[in-house]
Each structure stands twice: as structure tokens, then as C-alpha cells.
Target: Mur ligase central domain-containing protein
Amino acid sequence: MLNKKLIENYIINNENKLKINSNEIANGDIFLALQGNNYHGNKFIKASINNGAKFCLTDKKNQISSNSKKIFFVENIFLFLNDLVKKKRKLFKGKVIGITGSAGKTTLKEALSFFLRKKYKVSSSYRSFNNFLGVILTILNMNLKAKFAVFELGTNNFGEIKKIVQLVLPSQVIITNIQSTHLENFKNKRKIAIEKSNIFNPKYNPNIKLLIFLNVNKEENLLLNYAHQYQIKKIITIGQIQNSNCYISEIKKKNNKYLVNLNINKKNYTLTTNTNILHRIRNIIFCLALFNYNKLDVNIILKNFNKFKPVVGRGLIYEKKINNKKIKFIDETYNANP
Model:
């Protein structure tokens, strides 16, 4: 017979079992019946069971199209999940990395996870699951035996980062950039920087040990002021030669390739790449800086960076032949930043 303890233990001791989309349910998964914009998830409980759901969780007793014994009721599904998140996060002993920023979070998260997985077990955010619900799902879907857990933390309004970071509690933080995004709420980049700085504010994240961030504009430099104010143990800046720990020292074109010389905390590295797109090179710098800090083998990155493919909708290049001419299409269709 279903009971709360049985379900909690199943979620804690398994990975990637919690789903909110009935179409993604596979054998052994748990379906969360949540209130959506148009329908309550109860409408899809029957479909989830048919797809192999082990359990279905809901806090509504109406609109259920099944009387299956696999359905478990809780008084408040978010309170249930929130309590369980704290239990599972406390049990995780690996290193937790939190990534935020105005743009580029998902691509960097995917790149960093790609390199780490070459040697280690890694749990990471699914797609762009970076809001409060997405982070809850990511934590509950973690593998407790993973060496690293990589999270995206997103925000489009005040107070969201401090709410999310108290669940994730990352000891290592990366801020990709501060740009003019979600200005409908924040109004200006300074306020965005203040909101993002909550990810390394010890008041909300007492685990913080490392901060890596881009520092090329005055709003990003504001992060440096806060980092010093909060006495962050290790601060690594990425940007220009004269004011950063990590930077691009030179880019040379040779035939159809680019030779990119990087300085990472006074160590020099050379990459041979097919592109000189700045944000992609900076992603490599973020990864190298984090590998160096953790004393990981940077050759994992140097030998594999050309194998990493851009995320769909974020720079993936397709070649199509039209009227006997090869045409390149660059897919930048994803855009979550109004």
C-alpha cells in the first residue's frame, strides 16, 4: 500500500524519476499532477499510468480519470516537494555548482556537464529548468552518488534567486554576464546585478566558496564589490587583460582555423578552433577556470572542446543545399530574454 515514506524513499534513492509531462513518463517514473495554465495535471493521470508510471502524486481529488491504487494524495504538493528537496540536498555529498546570468546559462551548463562527464558521474538541470519548480525537480532527480551536480538558476523578478539558491546551496558559483534582459521588471542592469548577487550572498547561500564571473561592464564590476563585501574565499574574474584573472590574450586566423591563446590564472593554453565566436570561447574559459580550481585534468577540455555541439536553438549550424548551392543556417531560435 502506498504511503508517504515509501514514496519519499523511492525519490531520494533514484534519479530522473520525477516528471511533470505525462508524455515523458516511462516505466518506474513518478508523475506530478500540477495545476497548469489550462488544465490540472489530474487530467493526465490515466495517461501517465498507461505509460508506466509507478506512482502519481496530486493534492486535488477532483478531475481524476482513474481510480488506480498508484495515486497518492498529499495535502499540498509543493510543501511535500519542498520538504523532500531539503532532505535529498542534505544527503548529497558531491560538489554543487550553480550557474546564473542574463544569458548563456544553459549552454555553459551543458558544456561544463559535457566535460565533467568524460570522467565523473554528473547530475545537471534538464533543458532550461532554472525556475523554482525546475530547481526542485533537478534536486529530486539527482543521483546521490554523483561527483558533481550542475544547476541553472534563473530569475525574471526580484527575490527569485535568493529563494532558489537556498534550495541548491552551491559551493561554486558562475555568473555568465549581466545584460539588458527582463527589464520589464528589473528596469536596469544595476538591479539585475543586485538580484544575481544573491546567489553568492552568504545570508542565502552559506556554502559559497568560489565565485567565477564575467567582468567587462560596470554592472558586472558591481558583483566584484559585493564579492569583496561578502568576503568570498576565492574570486575569479573573466574579461580584459588589465583587470581579470582569465582572458583571451590573442586570436590568430590560420588557414580556416583560429588559434586562440588563453591566460587562465597565469597559465597559458592554446586552442585550435573552427570559430572565433566570443561567447563560445568564454564558455571554455569558464570551464578551464573551474577545472583549475578543482584541480581536475584540463586536458579533458583541451582534447574535447571541439566535440561539444551547441544546444538546439542556441547556435547549432545546419548546411542545406538549395539550387546546387550550400547554404549555412544558424539556429538561434531559442530566446527566453525579452
User: Anything to note?
Assistant: The two ends are 48 Å apart (CA to CA).
